[in-house]
Write a structure and sequence with these properties.
Rossmann fold; binds S-adenosyl-L-homocysteine; 470 residues; binds iron/sulfur cluster; Transcription Regulator spoIIAA; alpha/beta; 4 domains; 6-stranded parallel β-sheet; binds FE3-S4 cluster; 5-stranded mixed β-barrel
């Protein structure tokens, strides 16, 4: 049993070592014949963790099923970012409780960011005693031993570390796609934005060695992968803890030289986006001109309260530089409304920035207070109906620009990485442009994973229609 605590989660300790994943041979195939269902609630990083978890479960003999009703093990890979993610996971636990009353042998596990929360663990220990095991974000590679211990000792096993521990390489992975792959480049976050729980659930910034990243991508190229997405809570901080003169710009250059056709990266914090990165993105054709640049708020007053380290003006300066220097770049964003002390004027400044930036995509949220974060201690003085109304107004505006930007692509010829076939319509496929826009198109003799050119025939708010050009 090991429980999380926030004091340790807050410490930034740059002493860690890289070690290799190794499974005790006695565990290989140990659970043969058993089935599992894994549900993922979080971001791309969580999805990628699930790709590791699946491969580990496969290696100890479990096989995946698509319906939790038929599973011997149900594992929830959770997210803490907003209350609704939380509620969804607890709702599922409620359903599982009933299922377990009928199916006594059902094994239930919980992992991911919620496992790192002190309050969640207390609740699970008191009210969700039927949960067999819990592990955190820093020790997913220990899954075989944790399941085993829970079942052997027949009591709830909780193993959550708030201190990050070693950086483990070569954890097995079963990727969801044969053509698109996630590659972690940096774990954790040191930004401590005042509203955000991630620095506590994911620990300090730790970069993977460049050699390990490049080796992984070279293997992906050999295996026929067409696209990699470099992952981190703040990829711009890549390398700072390891090297004095090698950051995301240099890494992107080296990844570009592997000749993988498409490179994406996410997420970038505006604060340390360097000129070198802008130059590299504009120079190499296999680095996609598509940047996610979270704004959060357009008011410098609110940005300061959020601890975002930039102002409205410096954000706009960076945005304009990207637009000027990276040909055809598309920029998407995240925005929070209803942060404590956000006045109508502050909100209007957010709308003003949106009017200027005309984002290609935007994820918009109502502020959700999170346990142990500094912002949760601020007086929340925006009432719920105002929050809802601001979200509506913001969404109406961002949607206008999605459509306006998409309209500009009508009759243009664009490159698409084919992701799949429409299940309903014959000769209908879908995929994404370099700028990360979804296109549904018609054509013949196309395979998943092909890079094709498509002529855009019709623009909608969230997607485009087209037909195969050649
Ligand atoms: N590391 C990324 C953010 C990951 S979380 C970055 O800094 O860009 C994704 C988004 O969730 C954030 O950009 C933010 O808009 C939103 N978010 C984070 N904490 C939140 C909270 N407490 N309430 C509402 N939205 C939040
Ligand atoms: Fe959260 Fe800020 Fe870190 Fe993003 S940069 S994960 S919003 S603390
Ligand atoms: Fe959620 Fe954790 Fe990702 S809180 S957004 S799953 S890092």
């Amino acid at each position: 049993m090991h429980l999380p605590n926030y004091k340790e989660a807050k410490i930034r300790n740059k002493e860690y070592k890289t070690v290799e994943y190794k499974l005790d041979e006695n565990y290989l195939g140990k659970y043969s014949g058993k089935t599992y269902f894994l549900k993922t609630y979080g971001c791309q990083m969580n999805e990628h963790d699930s790709e590791n978890i699946k491969a580990i479960l496969d290696s100890i003999g479990f096989s995946e099923v698509n319906d939790y009703m038929n599973a011997d093990l149900v594992l929830l890979n959770t997210c803490s970012i907003r209350e609704n993610a939380h509620n969804k996971a607890f709702g599922m636990l409620g359903r599982l409780k009933h299922l377990k009353e009928e199916k006594k042998d059902l094994i239930i596990g919980l992992c991911g960011c919620m496992a790192q929360e002190v309050g969640v663990i207390e609740e699970i220990m008191q009210k969700y005693k039927f949960v067999n095991f819990v592990f955190g974000t820093h020790n997913l590679y220990r899954l075989p031993y944790i399941i085993d211990k829970a079942l052997m000792e027949n009591k709830q096993e909780i193993e959550v570390f708030s201190k990050e521990g070693d950086l483990v390489e070569d954890i097995p992975v079963r990727r969801a796609s044969k053509y698109k792959a996630y590659v972690n480049i940096i774990y954790g976050c040191d930004k401590f934005c005042t509203y955000c729980i991630v620095p506590y659930t994911r620990g300090g910034e730790r970069s993977r060695k460049k050699e390990d990243i490049l080796k992984e991508i070279e293997k992906l190229v050999k295996d026929g992968y067409k696209e990699v997405t470099l992952l981190g809570q703040n990829v711009n901080a890549y390398g700072k803890d390891l090297y004095s003169d090698y950051g995301l710009g240099e890494l992107l250059e080296d990844v570009s030289k592997t000749n993988i056709p498409r490179i994406r990266f996410t997420t970038s914090h505006p604060w340390d986006f360097t000129d070198k990165m802008i130059q590299v993105i504009s120079q190499y054709s296999n680095i996609m001109p598509s940047i996610h640049l979270p704004l959060q708020s357009g008011s410098s007053k609110i940005l300061k309260l959020m601890g975002r380290r930039y102002t409205k003006e410096s954000y706009l300066e960076l945005f304009d530089k990207m637009k000027a220097e990276i040909p055809g770049v598309s920029i998407s964003t995240d925005i929070i409304v209803g942060f404590p002390k956000e006045s109508e004027e502050d909100f209007l400044e957010t709308l003003e920035v949106v009017e200027h930036c005309k984002y290609d995509n935007a994820f918009t949220f109502i502020y959700s207070p999170r346990e142990n974060t500094p912002a949760a201690k601020l007086k929340d003085n925006v009432d719920n109906s105002t929050k809802e109304e601001r979200l509506q107004r913001l969404n109406t505006l961002v949607n206008e620009f999605f459509l306006e930007n998409n309209k500009k692509l009508e009759n243009e010829v664009v490159e698409i990485l084919v992701e799949g076939k429409s299940p309903k319509k014959k000769d209908c496929y879908y995929g994404y442009t370099k700028t990360n826009k979804l296109v549904n198109f018609t054509g013949k003799d196309i395979k998943e994973g092909d890079l094709v050119t498509v002529k855009i025939t019709d623009a909608k708010t969230w997607s485009l229609d087209g037909k195969l050009f050649k």
